[in-house]
């Protein structure tokens, strides 16, 4: 069966800190409360998203990879990952702050969990007044200092708090402590991994379980980057109707397009699938003469074999992700 640009049915995740913006801002359809994450494209075991429309409706990423291999992923990408999809795409809505957390490297995650590590990035889609993120440290500390701050409940005092607004972008490499603050709605692009070490959670109790959530400080302490960095935010250009670099890492590449006209795209040189994440407005994607509408809060996966596309918008912003 021929490949075509694919939308997937999201998987909605209850979170203690979740709110309503996935529904009210991004027009997601669900009835549960405290939905904090919408997993848009996922190959995580037991959490695989299924194709939402067209002849391949109901197929999982694993099934598509098994059948279409390099035509789906790109030949080079398939040689590396085989039948495992390398990225996980989410929208996250934090009504209250997330826990302070850190992710292990590929090497440690493989050794401890038989998993990929979790390098990730955030693109802020909407932020309330005075909303902030926590990323890295403001003060140089040692492992011993870190233990003392945990014991004294003062760990937040040495972390870097940064107020954010729409369009702010952050790359979160493994080892960097981080947390999304209250009032932030963002798109997250990450390696396919669900390994998180939670190091501080405000002593709160989950209303569903009646218990505090587990902390993982014994696992986290030797993966944390304790260094202070000059800046944590990603600075980028936003020229019209071209692919502007946001984050190019060994794990994924993300650009942003600020569109107000028709743009032709040729992906024949990258040998990779492409994911479009619409973060503002509405875009019409044309492939092989067929049109696919993409609205704010929607995601579209372009198989690697479809490398000639047209994008048309009067006012839209689109994240462009590939390996």
Describe the model.
The structure is a single chain. The strands form 6 sheets. Strands 17, 18, 19, 20, 21, 22, 23 and 24 form an 8-stranded antiparallel sheet that branches. The two termini are 24 Å apart. Strand 20 (274-287) and strand 21 form a beta hairpin. With 323 residues, the protein is mainly beta. The mean pLDDT is 95. The chain is globular, with a radius of gyration of 20 Å. The longest helix has 10 residues, at 143-152. It folds into 2 domains: 8-234, Jelly Rolls; 244-322, Jelly Rolls (Sandwich). The chain contains 7 helices and 24 strands.
Alpha-beta classification: mainly beta
SS element count, helices? 7
CATH topology value of the largest domain = Jelly Rolls
How much beta, percentage-wise? Answer: 35-45%
Report the helical percentage.
10-25%
**Oligomeric category:** single chain
Largest sheet data: 8 strands, antiparallel
CATH superfamily of the largest domain: Jelly Rolls
**Low-pLDDT windows of residues:** none
**Would you identify the CATH architecture of the largest domain?**
Sandwich
Q: Name the overall outline.
A: globular
How far do the termini sit from each other?
A: 24 Å
Number of strands: 24
Total separate domains: 2
| Highest-level CATH class of the largest domain | Mainly Beta
Mean pLDDT over the full residue set: 95
Radius of gyration: 20 Å
């Amino acid at each position: 069966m021929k490949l075509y640009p694919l939308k997937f049915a999201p998987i909605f995740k209850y979170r203690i800190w979740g709110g309503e913006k996935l529904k009210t801002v991004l027009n997601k359809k669900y009835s549960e409360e405290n939905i904090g994450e919408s997993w848009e494209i996922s190959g995580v075991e037991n959490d695989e998203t299924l194709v939402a429309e067209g002849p391949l409706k109901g197929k999982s990423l694993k099934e598509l990879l098994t059948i279409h291999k390099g035509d789906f992923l790109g030949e080079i990408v398939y040689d590396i990952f085989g039948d495992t999809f390398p990225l996980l795409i989410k929208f996250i809505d934090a009504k209250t702050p997330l826990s302070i957390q850190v992710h292990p490297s590929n090497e440690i995650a493989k050794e401890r969990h038989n998993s990929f590590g979790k390098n990730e990035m955030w693109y802020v889609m909407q932020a309330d007044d005075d909303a902030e993120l926590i990323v890295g440290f403001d003060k140089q500390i040692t492992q011993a200092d870190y233990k003392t701050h945990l014991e004294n409940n003062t760990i937040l005092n040495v972390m870097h708090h940064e107020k954010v607004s729409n369009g702010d972008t952050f790359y979160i490499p493994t080892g960097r402590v981080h947390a999304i603050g209250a009032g932030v709605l963002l798109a997250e692009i990450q390696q396919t991994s669900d390994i998180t070490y939670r190091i501080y959670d405000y002593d709160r109790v989950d209303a569903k379980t009646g218990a505090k959530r587990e902390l993982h400080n014994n696992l986290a302490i030797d993966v944390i980057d304790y260094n202070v960095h000059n800046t944590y935010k990603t600075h980028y250009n936003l020229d019209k109707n071209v692919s502007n670099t946001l984050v190019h890492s060994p794990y994924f590449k993300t650009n942003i397009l600020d569109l107000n006209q028709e743009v032709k795209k040729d992906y024949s040189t990258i040998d990779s699938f492409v994911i479009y994440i619409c973060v503002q407005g509405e875009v019409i994607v044309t492939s092989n003469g067929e049109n696919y509408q993409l609205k704010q809060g929607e995601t579209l996966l372009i198989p690697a074999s479809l490398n000639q596309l047209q994008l048309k918008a009067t006012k839209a912003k689109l994240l462009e992700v590939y390996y």
